[in-house]
Predict the structure of Phosphodiesterase.
Amino acid sequence: FDLENGPSGRGALDPQASPGAGLVLQGTFPHGQRRESFLYRSDSDYDLSPKAMSRNSSIASDLHGEDMIVTPFAQVGAIPAPQRGGDTALHPAPGPLPSWRVPPAEDAHQKLSRETLEELDWCLDQLETLQTRHSVSEMASNKFKRMLSRELTHLSETSRSGNQVSEYISSTFLDKQHEVEIPSALAKDKEKERRKRPMSHISGVRKLTHGSNLATAGIPRFGVRTEQEGLLAKELEDTNKWGLNVFKVAEYSGNRPLTVIMYSIFQERDLMKTFRIPTDTFITYMLTLEDHYHADVAYHNNLHAADVAQSTHVLLSTPALEAVFTDLEIMAAIFASAIHDVDHPGVSNQFLINTNSELALMYNDASVLENHHLAVGFKLLQEENCDIFQNLSKKQRQSLRKMVIDMVLATDMSKHMNLLADLKTMVETKKVTSLGVLLLDNYSDRIQVLQNMVHCADLSNPTKPLELYRQWTDRIMVEFFRQGDREREKGMEISPMCDKHTASVEKSQVGQRRGAGVGATGPWWGLSSAFPQVGFIDFIAHPLWETWADLVHPDAQEILDTLEDNREWYQSMIPRSPSPPPEGPEVSPATTDKYQFELTLEEEEEEEGESDTELEGAESPLDEDNSGSKTPATDDSE
C-alpha cells in the first residue's frame, strides 16, 4: 500500500508514518457518571459470560470495567490471556523436582495444560494473520443488530413516540429488505414519461462558468468575495476547533460555507502546495460543487457538507492519529466529506426505490444516493478548469478514487451497524491480542478507520454545542416533513418521522413546557423532536462515538461530554407522562402496534388545519440561512 504522495507525503507502510509501531490503544478510565451505550448490556442468550444487569442499566449510571469486551471474536481472544499471564503461578519453580514430591497424575495434568495453552496460542497467532475481518466482525454486527432490535421493541411499547422512533431507527440504520410500494396511477403515468428519457448521462450535472470570473478578478482572501470579510475571518479562526459555527460562516460568505471552509482547510494543511493544485482551479471546482447542492433542501445542503468536511478535518487532527495517515489519505477523506451529499434531492433512498426513480433503476436499489453523490462529485472534475487532481500521478489518482468511493458509500446509514461492529471488533481484538497496538499496516484497516471517521462526522450534530445542534434538528425535521407531504400526495405510506400531522400531536404535549422558558423559541417541530433525538443519541450516536472515543482515547472525552449534555437537555423537554398507546375494547392486541401512532379521522382533520397553518407561518431555517439561488431538485426524486 505504498502511495506516491508527493514531496511531503509518506507511504502508509513508512516507519515514520506513525509514532512507534502504530496507533496505541489507551486503556479506558472511569468517566464520572457518564452512561455506557446499550452495547454493554447483557445479551444473555449468546454471550460467553454475560454481565448481569437490568435492562435499564445503560440509562442509569452503570460503568463497565476497563477490560470488558463485547465483540464475540475479541471475547474468544481474551480467554487465554489470563491463563497465559498466570502460567508462572501454575509453574513457579523452573527445573526438575524430586520424583517423590510430584505425583504422576499431577505431572500429566500439568503437561496437558501446557500443551493446550501452546495450541491455543498457535491458533490465535494463525487467526491474527488471516484475512478474517469481514467474517469475525459479522458476528459482532449480528449481535449488535439483535441487541438493538430488542431495545427498539421495548421502546416501541412505551408510547406513541417510542413506536415512531423505533420504526425510524429500524428502517434507517438496520440494513433490512423493504417492500416496494406500488405507485398510484398518477405516479405510473409520470414513470412512463421518465422511462422515455436516456440513462446514458449523469443527471443533475449543470454547466457553470466560475473560472472566467476568477481569472479576471483574482482570488479573494477566503476564496469568495464578501462584504463581511472581517466577521468571516473571525469565524474561520475556529476552523481547527470542534463546534465551528457553520451557519455564521454561511451568513458572512454569501452562502458559500463549503467553498470557504474547504479553502481554509486546504490552506491550513498545505495540500494545494503538496499536490500542486492551482488555486483558481480549486476555487472553480468548489464553487461548482457547492452550486450542485440544493439550496431548497433543508438539511442535506451545502451547510451540511461544509460541517462534515470541517468535522472530518478536526478528527484527522486528533493527537492519537498524529502522523498516522498520509497526505493523500487526508485529502481523500476531506474531499469525500465535501462531495458526500452533492445533488441530494431531500428524500431518502427508500423513497427513490419506492417511486421507481431513475436513480434507483440506474443503481439497482443499492446505496442509490451515495452512488449518485460519487458520480456527480467525480463528474464535476471534468468541467472546465475543475480538475483539482490534475497533477497527481496515475497511481495516486487511482488510490484516491478508491478511497473516496469506499468512504462515501459507507455514509449509507443502512450500513451503520456493520461499520460500528467492524470498528469495535478491530479495537477490542487488538487490545487483547496485540498488546494494545493498532498497526494499521494494510488498506483494509486504514480505510476502516477513515470510513468510521467520516461516518462520525456525518453523525456529529448531537456532539456540537446545543445552539448548533438544535438548528440541525429543526432542519432535518423540515426535510422529513417535506418527504412525508410528497408521500401523502402520491398515496404512499408515510415514512416514520415524516408525518407532520402525527408530529403535531406531540407538539401539543411538548409545547406545554414552553411556559417554563426552556425551548420557548423556534418552530414547534423542533420541540416535537425531543423524544426522537434522545432515542437517536441512545441507540445510534452514543454507541458510535463511544467506540470512536475508545480508539482515540482520551482525545474525544469532551465530545462525549457534550453529547451527554445535549441528551440531558432533550430529555428535559420530554413530558413526564408520554402519550400511552391507544386503549379501548375495540382495539385488538394484534393491531395495537400497527396503529398506535395513527390519528382517528376526526383528530387528523382537526390537526391538519392547525399544522398546515403553523408550518406555513413558522420561520423556516431555510429562510435565513439558505437565501442563495435555488437549485431545483433532480427529476429522479419525483
Observations:
- Residues 482 and 498 are 7 Å apart (CA to CA).
- The radius of gyration is 27 Å.
- The chain has 29 helices and two strands.
